[in-house]
Design goal:
Strand content: 15-25%
Bound molecules: 6-diazenyl-5-OXO-L-norleucine
Strand order of the largest sheet: 3-20-19-15-14-11-10
Number of strands: 21
Shape: globular
Structural class: alpha+beta
Distance between the termini: 24 Å
Radius of gyration: 22 Å
Oligomer: single chain
Length: about 575
Amino acid sequence: MVSLKCLFTGIILCLTNPLAHAQNIGRKIKINPYHYTIQKDAEGKNGMVVCAHTLAAKVGMDILMQGGNAVDAAIAVQLALAVVYPGAGNLGGGGFMVARFGDGKRIALDFREVAPAGATEDMYVDKKTGEANLQLSQEGHLACGVPGTVAGLFAAMKYAKLPFEKLIRPAIALADKGFVISEREANALNSTADEFRKNNTSLPVFVRQGGWKAGDTLVQKELARTLTRIQRDGAKGFYEGETAKMIVDEMKNSGGIISFADLKNYKFEERVPDEFDYRGYHIITMPLPGSGGVLLHQMLKMLEARPIASYGFHTAKSVQLITEVERRAYADRSEYLGDPDFIKVPVKTLVSDTYLKERMADYDSAHASMSAAIKPGYIKESDQTTHLSIIDKDGNCVSVTTTLNGTYGSKCVVAGAGFLLNNEMDDFSVQPGVPNQYGAVGGEANAIAPHKRMLSSMSPTIVLKDDKPFMVVGTPGGTTIITSVLQSIINVVDFGMNAHDAVNEPKFHHQWLPDQIDVEKDFPADVCRQLQDMGYKINERKPWSHTELIKLKGGTLYEAAADKRGDDDAEGY
Ligand code: DON
C-alpha cells in the first residue's frame, strides 16, 4: 500500500521532544518496502533528505542517523533510486554532484555520459535524405552514451565516511526482495511496455503480462546481482568483467556501439563549481558541461539589475521580465555551450556585467521580443532525470541530479544485468538547428565527437547566506530544469516564499526556441491574457519538473519540500 500524507507526523514527535534528536542518532529506521507513506513536507535540525521516492529518502535518512554524512546518504539514495525509481534513478546513466561541506570546501563532480569512441558527428543523419533520424538518437542502443553514474558514486566516496559495501546494501535488498509500486509508477511502466518490447531481445522485468497496478511488487533479481558485483568489485564490477560483458553483448546484439574500451576508459571529472552572488545570497552550482551554471548566472544577474520583488509574484510584469531574461540566456546556450574539454566556451564574457547589460539593452517592458530577432549574443573572443537534496547535522550539503535522459532512457535493459541504459546521445546537437527531444537546438559547440560529453541542463545548486547553508535545490525536466531552479531561487529570495510554495506554485518557461511561454495548467489565466496582449504566445503544457528543495527556515531549523508533481518525498529529523 502506498498512501500520501502531507504533514510531518513522524517528524513532529522528535521536534517536540528535546531528547529526541539525541535518541534518534544511531537508531535504525524501519523501512517497509511493502507498505509506505509518501510525505511531501518535512522539518528538522539534524538532517534532511528530499528525493523522488519515499523508500530512497528513508534509506538516506537511515544512513544519516547511523552516523553517515550527506555524501554517504547521497550515494545510498542514488543507489536506492536506481532500484525503486527505474524511470530515472540509474546505474546506466550519468549526472552531476555539487557539494559544499561544513568546513567550507566545495566540489562539483561530473559523471556525465560520454559519446562512445565509435561515435561520429553525423551518426544520426540519414545518408540518403540528409535528414536527422531522431528515432535513433532518442531510443534504442545507438542512443546510449557511455554510463558515468557508477564512476561518479565511487568518486564521491572520497568525501564519504561509511564503507561503500554498507551504502549499497539497502539497494541490493530492495532489488532482491522487491518493493510495492505506486499508481504513477504502474502507469508509467504500462505506457512504456510497447517500447520495452521493441527495444529488448528478452522481455525485461518491467513488462508484466496483463499490466501493472498500484500495490504490485517489482522484484529485480538481475539488478540485485549487478549491484552485488559492484559491492564486491567496486567500479570494476560495472565497467569490467561480467557486467561490462553483458553491456557489450547487448550492444553487439542490437546495433549499439559501446565497447569494452569505452567502458574501461570512462573517467569522471572534478570541476570547479560556478559561484556568484545574487542579492546577498551566494550561489554554488554546476559548471559546464552542465549549462545550468552559466544560464543561472546570466539570468540572475540580468534580474538583479531590476526590482522584481516590487513587480509582484506572477504578475504580467514580473513574468515578462523573467521570460525575456530566459529567452536571451537560452539563445546563448544554443550557440556557445558544450563540453569545455572539446571547445572553448567564452564563459567569462557570457556572465560579465557589460555583456549582460548589452544583452538587455533592447528589452521592452511593454512588448514581447521576438526570438527570431534576438539571436545569440555577439562575443568578440573567440520527461527522465532525478534530483536529490541532502543536508546533514554538520552542515554538509549535497545536491545531485542524475539522468537516463528520457523516461526509462533508451528503453534498453542490459540483458542479464537488469538495468536500463540512457538515451543521452540526443542531448548532443544531432544536426545544426534540429531540436532534440526537449526542443533545444544547438550547433557546432555541442556537435557529437568521440569521448565528448553532451551538453546538459542539470543544475544541482546550493545557496549560502552569510557563508552558511541556506538552500539545496535541483530538479529534472530537460531544458526546464534551469528555469525551474531559477524560479525556486527567485520565489524564495525575491518573493519570500517557504519551501513548499517555492516548489509547488505553478511555473512558466521560455527557452528562446520555440518562441513561446510554456505555462503549467494552473498558471493564472488573467496573467496569460495580459501577456498575450503584449505579443506573447502562450502554450499550456502538462506540469513539469520535480523540484527537491531544502531551505533554512530559521535559526538552525530546516524545511524541505518534495514536489507535488510526483511521488517525491521529504524526510527530516
Ligand atoms: O542532461 C540533461 O539536460 C537532460 N538529459 C535531462 C533530462 C531530464 O531532465 C528529463 N526529465 N524529465
